């Protein structure tokens, strides 16, 4: 039996035999969808027989029989429900696989372009070109029906760390709250893990989950992208032209990676020795380059602030250098750290430990250098260097490996909106995270203007504070929770040790543990175990599920709610 893959979560096949089910289970399939009516041909396995054997093998089974040429809207709806609810990956079958492929095409026409659907089917060996007109008409009808104005009590923009954590925190406090989350992507990523992928510690696949498994079940998932904010009418406009209204808005759209601002960068990313741990598809290439480099020059760049996880550029450098040291090739590799900043790290208490590792690895620190151009084939990079007097010059550097941390900014629809400040970020009060001009709007995560470090740890603390304040506003209560600017940057200085930087507004140290357990200013094995073993499951099963570890806002004796961290 030959299976043909349509998507990461769905493959199709011709009629399967009872004996095929075991092979399908061993191949990793979780669900079998039978689209062939019983009795089409003699000796065809009956659905009840297949279902019984599937259950014995731990496979989910769905029977959605379709008579050739008589596919109904109910058939399409049932197939779409199976794709949404059943465990993935799934295998759908009929006589030849054509009916299953056609069902899939009609089930996803509201989320995929028709040309992409037809192209995907063709790659699997199924010609749906004669259905193009019908699919386009169906897509138009569905788009029109989606343009009706929807209304929710709380609307969350963004299905990243901050958005999902806030939605979960809201629903943990008030399970029947009317909440919707706007998010266009099917997949959610644990981005702090990409540093570890680039260092050969994590597998990239371990950092991803299906979005529908993470957005709270009580919340409505609006799978779309925001085009405009309309705060004066309490609504947002999606890219398909539909409007969604709200009583309260929580904006957590993240930020944008501006690789295109570096001339020649996009053309060479992922080849010619040019990589970046800031992208899921590139982090494995970082590890490939690190393993392959035995001599030459490795450059690690850092752009002007603000960026998310400001320690990420040097984390990549430390883990790479540690590998080269262990492989006894470090003395043959010239490491250049080129940063647009003027210090290695902005909180002075952590600098001495970091400088010990800079010396250990023989890395050269080049301050005031911002990457502006790359010639990948010729392995040359140019940096704009600013001196103490503001004079600028161009520095040319040859490389064998170049790790890029790209410039970063707010998404365009945020920059153009009434919510943005002069720098393009959503303008909020840094303590309450409420918008400075619109009292029913809160923002958190990478896109807000609060002067904290843009890290997942910051979002972890911001989410319950925003949830508390949103509910207080809905209830007309004049209380608030206060954010202290907490952020964390676990600096992976070597494989097995981390300098655990934790700090808040004004550079104040805010350690989560007593110094006798973890002294965050010193490299620690316990901090490494925290990042490698504890934080990933804490993220998936805790933060994104509304479980608020070390960050629960509680009422006190005053009229305010303060955030009790310890």
Automatic annotation (TrEMBL):
This is TIGR01244 family phosphatase. The keyword Zinc does not apply. Keywords: FAD, Flavoprotein, Oxidoreductase, Quinone, Transit peptide. Pfam families: BLH_phosphatase (PF04273), Pyr_redox_2 (PF07992). It comes from Algimonas arctica. InterPro entries: BLH_phosphatase-like, FAD/NAD-bd_sf, FAD/NAD-binding_dom, Prot-tyrosine_phosphatase-like, Sulphide_quinone_reductase. Its cofactor is FAD. One of its GO terms (molecular function) is sulfide:quinone oxidoreductase activity.
């Amino acid at each position: 039996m030959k299976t043909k893959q349509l998507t990461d979560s769905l493959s199709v096949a011709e009629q399967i035999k009872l004996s095929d089910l075991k092979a399908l289970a061993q191949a990793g399939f979780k669900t079998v969808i039978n689209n062939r009516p019983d009795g089409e041909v003699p000796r065809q396995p009956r659905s009840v027989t297949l279902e019984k054997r599937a259950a014995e093998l731990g496979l989910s089974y769905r029977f959605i029989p379709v008579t050739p040429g008589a596919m109904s809207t109910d058939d399409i709806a049932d197939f779409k429900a199976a794709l949404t609810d059943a465990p993935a990956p799934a295998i759908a079958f009929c006589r030849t696989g054509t009916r299953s492929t056609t069902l899939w095409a009609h089930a996803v026409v509201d989320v995929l372009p028709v040309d992409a659907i037809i192209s995907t089917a063709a790659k699997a060996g199924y010609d749906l070109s004669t259905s193009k007109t019908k699919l386009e008409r169906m897509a138009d009808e569905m788009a029109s029906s989606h343009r009706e104005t929807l209304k929710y009590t709380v609307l969350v923009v963004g299905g990243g760390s901050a958005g999902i954590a806030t939605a979960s925190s809201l629903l943990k406090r008030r399970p029947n709250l009317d909440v919707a989350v706007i998010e266009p992507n099917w997949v959610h990523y644990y981005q702090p893990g990409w540093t570890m992928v680039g260092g050969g510690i994590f597998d990239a696949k371990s950092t991803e989950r299906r979005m529908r498994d993470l957005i709270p079940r009580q919340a409505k998932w609006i799978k779309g992208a925001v085009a405009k904010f309309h705060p004066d009418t309490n609504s947002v406009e999606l890219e398909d032209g539909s409007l969604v209204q709200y009583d309260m808005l929580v904006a957590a759209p993240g930020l944008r990676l501006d690789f295109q601002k570096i001339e020649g960068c996009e053309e060479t990313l992922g080849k010619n020795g040019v990589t970046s741990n800031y992208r899921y598809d590139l982090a494995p290439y970082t590890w490939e380059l690190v393993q392959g480099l035995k001599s030459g020059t490795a450059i690690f760049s850092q752009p002007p602030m603000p960026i998310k996880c400001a320690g990420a550029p040097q984390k990549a450098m430390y883990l790479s250098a540690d590998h080269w040291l262990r492989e006894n090739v470090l003395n043959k590799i010239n490491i250049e750290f080129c940063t647009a900043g003027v210090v290695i790290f902005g909180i002075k208490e952590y600098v001495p430990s970091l400088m010990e590792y800079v010396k250990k690895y023989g890395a050269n620190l080049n301050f005031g250098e911002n990457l502006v151009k790359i010639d990948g084939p010729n392995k040359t990079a140019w940096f704009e260097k600013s001196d103490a007097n503001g004079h600028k010059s161009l520095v040319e550097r040859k490389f064998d490996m170049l790790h890029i941390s790209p410039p970063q900014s707010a998404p365009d629809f945020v920059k153009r909106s009434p919510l943005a400040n002069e720098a393009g970020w959503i303008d909020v009060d840094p303590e309450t995270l409420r918008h400075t001009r619109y009292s029913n709007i809160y923002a958190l995560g990478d896109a807000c203007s609060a002067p904290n470090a843009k890290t997942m740890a910051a979002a972890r603390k911001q989410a319950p504070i925003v949830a508390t304040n949103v509910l207080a506003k809905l209830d007309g209560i004049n209380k608030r929770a206060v954010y202290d600017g907490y952020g964390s940057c676990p600096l992976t200085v070597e494989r097995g040790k981390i300098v655990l930087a934790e700090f808040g507004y004004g550079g104040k140290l805010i350690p989560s543990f007593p110094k006798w357990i973890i002294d965050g200013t010193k490299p620690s094995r316990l901090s490494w175990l925290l990042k490698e073993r504890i934080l990933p499951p804490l993220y998936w099963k805790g933060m994104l599920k509304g479980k608020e570890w070390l960050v629960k806002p509680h009422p006190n004796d005053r009229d305010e709610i303060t955030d009790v961290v310890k």
